[in-house]
């Protein structure tokens, strides 16, 4: 991997990441396809049309349904889902948080009950790396524990120390797997994850420790899990300066367009979030003037596209009224068009952010976008 910073404005970075599966222009939003597909009937051909750079899939979910060994037989996730651009796989660590009632954490790893059929699963650092190696993703995430934002300090300290030990095991196992003859992607990259809840001192100390491991990239995890936006920004202000300047930085699971603008302003390169697809499936669509709910009666006779000037597949061809009709009639096409629009909006937002940094006007762009979105729809 090569990471080249092309331009900066304050802490905001405009960079290029070269990988075995192609270049990534950052800041970038990764479109979330948990089980190797974007929810909302969006194909990989659609992803290319809406200018997706990176697709994100989940280790735990692909392991329990279909199985990583089967996917390896197909030649890995890229061939399985017909996608020739970068893929990042989440390690399964977030499921340590989200399946709290169905897991037990030990030093060796985590024992889960499958959310599908209840059968017992064990996943530790080595198992997570092995599954991600079978998937052959471009970027593998280290296996960590994502503690609750309301966990007490003593729990957070113990959790972070364990996550650090797990990271060392992930790095050793990834090096072993990349050296094997039958490895699908011997150039698989490993990103470590900074944890520490909302405690700045724990976060900073952890950032220092994992920076010494010389990984391919670094993520800030354990945010957007219940803390306020102000707390998240405070943690980013504190911790990002302690992560390596010559490596990409990834803010996991974030977020709204405003969150992304604030994250870029604090030096973040990579983002992902389910918001655009999840909201789209419920008829909520993003515009530069805030979010619209197309189920509202006010759009029943509205002949305009979701957003004037938008070049997404939905806005180029269909009216708000028609898409509302589809949603009300529970036709899948309505959901699909809303998801396509939202993903395009996010991808295009990142393009505009990159251009604004290139042109030295990101601060002005951020201010104008935040004001415009806060003002809400103008009709």
From TrEMBL:
Species in which this protein is naturally found: Anthropogastromicrobium aceti
Record pathway: tRNA modification; tRNA-queuosine biosynthesis
Chain residues that bind substrate: 90-94, 144, 195, 222
Annotated stretches, region: RNA binding: 253-259
Name of the molecule in the record: Queuine tRNA-ribosyltransferase
Broad enzyme group: transferase
Residue ranges annotated for the tRNA-guanine(15) transglycosylase-like domain, each copy included: 12-373
GO molecular function: metal ion binding; tRNA-guanosine(34) queuine transglycosylase activity
């Amino acid at each position: 991997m090569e990471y080249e910073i092309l331009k900066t404005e304050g802490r905001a970075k405009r960079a290029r990441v070269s990988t075995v599966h192609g270049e990534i222009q950052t800041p970038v939003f990764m479109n979330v396809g948990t089980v190797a597909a974007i929810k909302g009937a969006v194909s990989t051909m659609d992803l290319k049309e809406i200018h997706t750079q990176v697709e994100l899939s989940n280790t735990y979910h692909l392991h329990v349904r279909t199985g990583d060994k089967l996917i390896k037989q197909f030649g890995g996730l890229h061939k399985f889902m017909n996608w020739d651009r970068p893929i990042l796989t989440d390690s399964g660590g977030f499921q340590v948080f989200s399946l709290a009632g169905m897991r037990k954490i030990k030093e060796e790893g985590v024992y889960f009950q499958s959310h599908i059929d209840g059968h017992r699963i064990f996943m530790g650092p080595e198992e997570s790396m092995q599954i991600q190696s079978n998937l052959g993703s471009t970027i593998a995430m280290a296996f960590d524990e994502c503690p609750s934002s309301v966990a007490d300090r003593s729990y957070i300290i113990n959790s972070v120390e364990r996550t650090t030990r797990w990271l060392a095991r992930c790095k050793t196992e990834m090096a072993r797997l990349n050296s094997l003859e039958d490895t699908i992607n011997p150039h698989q990259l490993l990103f470590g994850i900074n944890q520490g809840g909302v405690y700045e001192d724990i976060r900073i100390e952890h950032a220092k420790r994992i920076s010494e491991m010389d990984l391919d990239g670094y993520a800030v995890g354990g945010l957007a899990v219940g803390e306020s936006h102000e707390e998240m920004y405070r943690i980013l202000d504190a911790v990002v300066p302690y992560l390596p300047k010559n490596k990409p930085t990834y803010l996991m699971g974030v977020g709204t367009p405003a969150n992304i603008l604030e994250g870029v302003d604090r030096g973040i390169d990579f983002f992902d979030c389910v918001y655009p697809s999840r909201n789209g499936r419920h008829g909520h669509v993003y515009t530069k003037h805030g979010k619209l709910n197309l189920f509202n009666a006010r759009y029943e006779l509205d002949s305009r596209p979701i957003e004037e000037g938008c070049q997404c597949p939905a806005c180029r061809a269909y009216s708000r009224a028609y898409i509302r009709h589809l949603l009300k009639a529970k036709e899948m096409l309505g959901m699909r068009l809303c998801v396509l629009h939202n993903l395009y909006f996010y991808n295009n937002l990142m393009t505009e952010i990159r251009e604004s940094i290139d042109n030295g006007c990101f601060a002005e762009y951020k201010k104008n976008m935040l004001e415009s979105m806060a003002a809400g729809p103008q009709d």
